[in-house]
Specification:
4-stranded antiparallel sheet, alpha+beta
């Protein structure tokens, strides 16, 4: 049995691997699971730095257009926040392979999905070591029974995936 951690570590210790590689949020929409890395992880910061460089003057002056700002955010999310998915579909219900281009397209076409993914990525609790350990224990327990649906974070791929 592992030693119990102090209260500060229980509350704030995060898993650095999960922050970059992401955690699975299952059934974001029925049958759609998405793997989400933490907002402002090292890779995300580097991507934002790189894609924003041509716009430094506009950023400093506060003159960057909303359209360009959104495009930069989408590039950052598609490159370093969404790290996998299962069950994504296009507008006609056709399966979408997990590619950078498909992530960009979905995030562009569905701004509310983009905002929801950003909110999950900014939720510190999802990346806490204790939360991940509890989610893994719960998913192992429930894998023998039925799923209650809804969103739940796990570090491993959802059991229904064909990865």
């Amino acid at each position: 049995m592992s030693k119990k951690k102090g209260k500060l570590f229980q509350q704030y210790e995060t898993d650095p691997v999960a922050e970059v590689e992401g955690i699975w949020v299952t059934d974001l929409v029925d049958g759609f699971d998405v793997k989400i890395a933490r907002w402002q992880n090292a890779k995300h910061r580097e991507v934002i730095r790189r894609v924003s460089k041509p716009y430094e003057q506009q950023l400093e002056r506060g003159t960057l257009s909303d359209k360009v700002g959104t495009e930069l955010m989408i590039q950052g999310i598609a490159t370093a926040i969404v790290t996998g998915w299962n069950g994504a579909e296009d507008a006609d219900g056709n399966p979408l392979e997990f590619t950078y281009e498909n992530v960009v397209q979905l995030l562009t076409d569905l701004p509310d999905l983009r905002e929801e993914i950003a909110k999950f990525a900014q939720t510190q609790d999802l990346y806490r070591v204790q939360s991940i350990e509890e989610a893994v224990k719960n998913s192992k327990r429930s894998s023998a029974g039925s799923s209650g649906g809804g969103t739940s974070p796990t570090q491993d791929a959802p059991s229904s995936s064909d990865e």
